[in-house]
């Protein structure tokens, strides 16, 4: 088994601070600092140095993290193959993670299927934003996660994780039921530019997606409410306070006073949904099975949510 202090070092490298690494690992900051000090003493090489009030990797520490990526991927493959070779070893635990709409539409049915097929298997689900899911994967507190690609940090983790496309999730527009466009089968962004908009706060990935969509058609929308939660946006729309984008994966309540309308045109915004896991870990039979189940669930969702008109 690989030295767990190497996992601590890689997690620190990805998270950037001792505090963030501690949150991902489930340790205290002092425990993370102590493990980093112990590891560099054991190796006889300076891995981290003080940088202001925090720590940063030395050149040696950065080199170790980079070279360790292939080592840990190989260990994941070996570990999975060894477990698969013993037919008496039943899968014990799988930890799944994902953002809120992915939890409801993808992770929940996949977890139920895994429990049905493997009654002795423990399935744990952690709901978290995509960036935190990646941190938890590196920290080995998640085994498989569903993220939005635009919110991942591939520049820091490309050599650590494997990304598997699941589906493209279009953003529809949500309008009040009494809105003049509510009966339309599809609308364009140009038709919506003058509407009062509800969207995320500036600086967030979804606000960037919102701005990019309208910039592509040469329009500047009027934002009247800044709300992050999809359910809260639906409530505001239902009460006639504006219109909003909503992912197709997001289900509306049966008593919703809002209507979903697909957007038409090449500039209609879409978010790409990915499954991510540590490199090499697909060799674990239960992880591979969960990944296959996620793919099947994604294909079923796409077939059910495809718009019927245009």
Automatic annotation (TrEMBL):
<feature type="signal peptide">
    <location>
        <begin position="1"/>
        <end position="20"/>
    </location>
</feature>
<keyword id="KW-0238">DNA-binding</keyword>
<dbReference type="Pfam" id="PF00126">
    <property type="entry name" value="HTH_1"/>
</dbReference>
<keyword id="KW-0732">Signal</keyword>
<comment type="similarity">
    <text>Belongs to the LysR transcriptional regulatory family.</text>
</comment>
<dbReference type="InterPro" id="IPR036390">
    <property type="entry name" value="WH_DNA-bd_sf"/>
</dbReference>
<protein>
    <submittedName>
        <fullName>LysR family transcriptional regulator</fullName>
    </submittedName>
</protein>
<feature type="domain" description="HTH lysR-type">
    <location>
        <begin position="1"/>
        <end position="58"/>
    </location>
</feature>
<dbReference type="Pfam" id="PF03466">
    <property type="entry name" value="LysR_substrate"/>
</dbReference>
<keyword id="KW-0804">Transcription</keyword>
<dbReference type="InterPro" id="IPR036388">
    <property type="entry name" value="WH-like_DNA-bd_sf"/>
</dbReference>
<keyword id="KW-0805">Transcription regulation</keyword>
<dbReference type="InterPro" id="IPR005119">
    <property type="entry name" value="LysR_subst-bd"/>
</dbReference>
<dbReference type="InterPro" id="IPR000847">
    <property type="entry name" value="LysR_HTH_N"/>
</dbReference>
């Amino acid at each position: 088994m690989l030295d767990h202090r190497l996992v601590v070092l890689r997690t620190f490298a990805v998270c950037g601070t001792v505090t963030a690494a501690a949150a991902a690992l489930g340790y205290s900051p002092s425990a993370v600092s102590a493990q980093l000090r112990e590891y560099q003493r054991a190796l006889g090489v300076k891995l981290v140095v003080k940088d202001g009030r925090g720590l940063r990797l030395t050149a040696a520490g950065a080199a170790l993290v980079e070279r360790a990526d292939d080592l840990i991927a190989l260990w994941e493959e070996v570990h999975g193959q060894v477990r698969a070779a013993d037919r008496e070893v039943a899968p014990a635990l799988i930890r799944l993670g994902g953002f809120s709409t992915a939890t409801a539409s993808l992770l929940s049915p996949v977890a139920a299927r895994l429990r049905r097929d493997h009654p002795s298997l423990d399935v744990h689900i952690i709901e978290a934003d995509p960036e935190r899911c990646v941190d938890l994967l590196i920290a080995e507190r998640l085994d498989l996660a569903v993220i939005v690609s635009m919110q991942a940090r591939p520049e820091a983790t490309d050599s650590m994780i494997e990304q598997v496309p699941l589906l493209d999730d279009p953003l529809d527009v949500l309008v009040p039921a009494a809105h003049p466009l509510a009966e339309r089968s599809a609308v364009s962004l140009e038709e919506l530019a003058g509407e009062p908009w509800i969207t995320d706060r500036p600086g967030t990935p979804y606000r960037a997606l919102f701005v990019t969509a309208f910039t592509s058609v040469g329009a500047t929308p009027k934002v009247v409410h800044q709300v992050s939660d999809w359910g809260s946006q639906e409530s505001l729309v239902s009460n006639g306070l504006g219109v909003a984008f909503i992912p197709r994966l997001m289900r509306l309540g049966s008593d919703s006073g809002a209507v979903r309308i697909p957007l038409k045109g090449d500039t209609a915004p879409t978010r790409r949904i990915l499954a991510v896991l540590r490199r090499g870990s697909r060799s674990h039979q239960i992880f591979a099975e969960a990944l296959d189940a996620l793919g099947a669930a994604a294909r079923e969702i796409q077939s059910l949510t495809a718009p019927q008109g245009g």
